[in-house]
Amino acid sequence: MNHSTLRIRALVAVGVFAGFSFGAISARAENPPSAAPAAQAEPAKKPNQRPPEVQAIMDESAAQIAALGLEKNSLQVGQTLPAFELVDSTGAKVSSAGLLAKGPLVITFYRGGWCPYCNKALAALTAMLPEFQQHGATLVAITPETSDLAVKTGEKSSVAFPILTDVDNAYAKKLGIVFALPPKLDGLYTNRFKVDLRAKHQSQAAELPVPLTLVVARDGRVVWRFMDLDYTKRAEPAEIVAALKALPKP
Predict the structure, then answer these.
(1) CA-CA 20 to 30 A from 71: which of 46, 77, 215, 223?
(2) Contact call for residues 33 and 66 (beta carbons, < 8 A)
(3) Rounded to whole angstroms, how far apart are CA atoms 18 and 10?
(4) What is the mean pLDDT of the segment spanning 47-70?
(5) Cα–Cα dist 209/49, whole Å
């Protein structure tokens, strides 16, 4: 199956989107690990707009993260989704077993409400939620940010599905999609970009999940996935619908 991706072309200042339209985004087939923008903390700023010393740190860190082999070593199509029980923004426990008992499951991991690409992706998924539900699917997002921040993210992007908090990225680590920020990048996030991941996650580690979207059949098998180290590329909602349509009818 060819999995197209969304390449966000935002000609904007840091943290702000102007004239963004998912309909105007180009798509391409699923790609190998991308080296350049994998770890950038300043997601809406084009590389040529950054000071050279900032871009050098980003490029060096992206290469270090790409060398971890996360795309190859993480959860793959055909494998069984590890079970989870996480807490939503109301404090209620949500389990994968309970969700899969209702039908197929769509899971999307996002980095945090500070990331404008994450916010736009969440909004796009919300817009397609009725189509997911037509095929009996439940959609949930998983994030390392605290529940109170997840509430704010949900409000900002008008999210109409549960956001689950993954404390210390514990569940994402089971899927093999977490990386620790290299020291130079950690300093850049905290001091220059004012993104204090330890505070946002209430964790002692500065770690992030690679954005990942999965379609999981009722028996727990992963039947479709999108993952790219380049955080500006996200799953195309129409591709998720196609994967749901391909599932056997109950």
Answers:
(1) 46
(2) yes
(3) 7
(4) 91
(5) 26
Cα–Cα distance measured from residue 27 to residue 128, given in angstroms and rounded to the nearest whole number: 17
> Across the chain, how many H-helices and E-strands are there?
9, 11
DSSP state, residue 79? S
Domains annotated on the chain, with CATH: 5-245 (3.40.30.10)
Q: Give residue 49's pLDDT band: very low, low, confident or very high (50, 70, 90).
A: confident
* Amino acid type, 161: F
Q: What is the mean pLDDT of the chain?
A: 85
Q: How far apart are CA 217 and CA 248, in angstroms?
A: 9
Tens digits of residue pLDDT in 101-142: 999 999 999 999 999 999 999 999 999 999 999 999 999 999
Closest CA to 219 of 79, 100, 41, 120: 100
Q: What is the pTM of this model?
A: 0.82
Q: Which residues of 85-121 are buried (b: 16+ CB within 10 A; e: fewer)?
A: ebbbbeeeebebeebbeebbbbbbbbbbbbbbbbbbb
Q: How far is residue 222's CA from residue 218's CA, in Å, rounded to a whole number? A: 9
The amino acid present at 106, given as its one-letter code, is V
